Amino acid sequence: MTDPILVGLIIFVLASFVGFEVINKVPPTLHTPLMSGSNAISGIAVIGALLMAGSGHTPLTVALGFVATVLATVNVVGGFLVTDRMLQMFKR
Amino acid sequence: MDWITRIEELSYLAAAALFIVGLKQLGSPATARQGNRLAALGMFLAIVVTLLDRQIISFTGILAAIGLGSLIGAVAAYKVEMTAMPQMVGLLNGLGGAASALVGIGEFCRIVAVGDPLPLSTLVTIILGVLIGGVTLTGSLVAFGKLQGLISGTPVIFPMQQGINLGLLLAFLATSVLIWLDPAQMGVFWGLVALSSLLGILFVLPIGGADMPVVISLLNSLSGLAASAAGFIVGNSMLIIAGALVGASGLILTQIMCKAMNRSLANVLFSGFGGGSSQAAGGGLSAATAKSVRTIDPEESAMMLGYAKSVVIVPGYGMAVAQAQHSVKELADQLERLGVEVKYAIHPVAGRMPGHMNVLLAEANVPYPQLKDMEDINPEFEHVDVALVIGANDVVNPAARTNPGSPVYGMPILDVDRAHHTIVIKRSLSPGFAGIDNELFYKDKTLMMFGSAKEVLNNLIAEVKHL
């Protein structure tokens, strides 16, 4: 089995290139929604938080997991909703 | 690999694909809203699948945490004023970073408590996660404070700043080595957490308010990298992919913002713009006070605008502060009623975050095709009758073209001074965030209207209605 860190690194580098290609040349009008939308995606850390909160290893890790889950969920829900609210205002 | 794990992995793959398609669609006005929803769907899928994971043994607390987070997020998203959007984005960045850092901290605590082996590669990812997450959190909080006016927007500079930062960085490295030698010393680890937080504060504190678009973009990128680091820590490729996508998008925006100011990223981050150059600017300022400005009253101004053929409105941070975007739109409507062609010229770094002006004008129902980018509108200015500058300063300073000694020299600007006439609505003659005087205000063709943008505009609207 290959080293998981190495596999992770390969995924990371390739995904970064995909990110650059996909997001390049976004018109200035959409800079703010793009930022708040991608910001919501970075709330993906909620997955790590859930695994930590749910695994019940020690009281401390569970507590940290709960706090992390709350913060990341605010990030995710707030980010996507505020982006939607902004985008519905953009009209031709 | 059993079937549950297989379904989980495939669902993560689907979620990652949804993120990529969503981000792609966010890049075009016609599809942006759908793109955002696709990304949200991807996130929903990822969360549901994770909840099915059999590592998770207690659900009540988790569901409560998700419910609480969703509630806070939803209320904030619906309550926030559009003018406060930079703060909102800044704060959300910080929360994402905090969550990632907590994942790193939690994993470290677990390893130490359970007594698992701690290979160097795992330790490095944890340290990186704590560092990036911590810097994102405290850096975003300082940015939030500056944007909200809780902390002075001017660069905070103190003696030995670079030396102290270097010292902190060395202390961070030393602490990391100590942890490697003896992970069981939890006190040392908490020291590492504290150092990361301190670094974030000191990193944003010396950066001025006008450079906030760069800082917010960079923190956005960092929040993505923090999520990626968390992915390495818990061994989840979904986090790595999503984090890398966000990291890349934040970096692109950072680049665009730096280019729009003709400055390198290093210059923005480490120069303490405005503070350091105040000496050079002082000379210009005293020379300028000898010059005189011409003011214009609302009545005259209304006549100029109402009988013009074409008017270009140039909004800046002053419009956001005065919440004057609806008044701007009303004035434009009145002018259009009189047959005036109205356009808006948007500088890439106008305001406090990328695209700040576009969002505010969209809120006031200005159709986005009327908003012109700098490259498109600049060649048109010489045929424009009146350029109406509302609360913008540094982005229309002709010194950027003409005065090699000016700190803004070389920055691309909106050429409002090339219009037949320029009307500037501004609270006072005080310099903008770059801390330098604006020679535009003293030109013969420039007419000043002093006051809060909203008040002045409302007077102007009343006069235009009488035409």
Order of helices and strands of chain B: HHHHHHHHHHHEHEHHEHEHEHEEH
Broad structural category of chain B:
alpha/beta
- Helix fraction of chain A by DSSP (H/I, runs of at least 4): over 70%
Residue share in helix of chain B: 55-70%
Structural class of chain A: mainly alpha
Report on the biggest sheet of chain A.
Answer: none
The backbone outline of chain A, from C-alpha atoms, is flat
Description of the molecule:
The complex is a heterodimer of chains A (92) and B (467). The mean pLDDT of chain A is 91. Chain A is mostly helical and 92 residues long. Chain A has four helices and no strands. Chain A has helices spanning 4-23, 31-42, 45-55, 59-87. Chain A is flat, with a radius of gyration of 17 Å. Helices cover 78% and strands 0% of the residues of chain A. Chain B is an alpha/beta fold. Chain B has 18 helices and seven strands. Chain B has helices at 3-25, 32-52, 60-79, 85-114, 120-148, 161-181, 186-204, 212-234, 237-260, 265-270, 278-289, 298-306, 317-321, 325-337, 356-363, 374-377, 399-402, 453-466; strands at residues 294-295, 310-315, 341-346, 371-373, 386-390, 421-426, 446-450. Classes of the chains: A mainly alpha (92), B alpha/beta (467). At the A-B interface, α1, α2, α3 and α4 of A face α1, α2, α3, α4 and α5 of B.
What topology emerges from the helices and strands here?
The complex is a heterodimer of chains A (about 90) and B (about 475).
Chain A: H1 4-23, H2 31-42, H3 45-55, H4 59-87
Helix pairs in contact in A: 2-4, 3-4
Chain B: H1 3-25, H2 32-52, H3 60-79, H4 85-114, H5 120-148, H6 161-181, H7 186-204, H8 212-234, H9 237-260, H10 265-270, H11 278-289, E1 294-295, H12 298-306, E2 310-315, H13 317-321, H14 325-337, E3 341-346, H15 356-363, E4 371-373, H16 374-377, E5 386-390, H17 399-402, E6 421-426, E7 446-450, H18 453-466
